């Protein structure tokens, strides 16, 4: 899928060997991944024989990033049955489920897509340009956004530090109108 493809591409771009697993030879990102030099195995990663073929022994980590929470959990747990010390990152949609899995199964990283995306959607709704969302701990996400103060706004002319709200918002940089050069 698109998340798995982007994760694999990001890992490969850092010079780390990566192998993708796709349930179908006709998967949307199978050919693009291979064209980018990323080997792709065809099979269901929930099955022991597919995980054995991946040779998890020397692997740094396993990322389970399908669109199905239970499939991702099964992949992670089956991989851990083969190699208990394996670092696993599991994509989950339900943030509460993600926390229970992280604590209950000792999965070091679980990422709830909705938990990470919600702040970005909220910022986009109020016309901010989302630069990044960064998970901090279990229940917080730091959102980096860029926004313009329109002429006549109640924010116009205020000092940046007066906009800071402890625990909620911090202005990191300011640029003059029409300039992309920021003063930190």
How would you characterize the overall build of this protein?
The protein has helices at 2-13, 30-35, 48-53, 69-82, 95-105, 113-125; strands at 20-22, 40-42, 61-64, 87-92, 109-112, 129-136, 140-146, 174-175, 182-183. With 184 residues, it is α/β, with parallel strands linked by helices. The strands form four sheets. Strands 3-4-5 form a three-stranded parallel β-sheet.
Strand order in the largest sheet: 3-4-5
Provide the gyration radius in Å: 21 Å
| N to C succession of SSEs | HEHEHEHEHEHEEEE
The count of helical stretches stands at 6
Summarize the main sheet: 3 strands, parallel
Shape: elongated
Tell me the structural class: alpha/beta
The helix content is 25-40%
Strand content: 15-25%
Average pLDDT, to the nearest integer?
Answer: 82
Number of strands: 9
Low-confidence stretches: none
Q: How far apart are the termini? A: 38 Å
What labels would you give this structure?
single chain, 184 residues, alpha/beta, 3-stranded parallel beta sheet, 6 helices
Please sum up the structure shown.
The chain is 34% helix and 21% strand. With 184 residues, the chain is an alpha/beta fold.
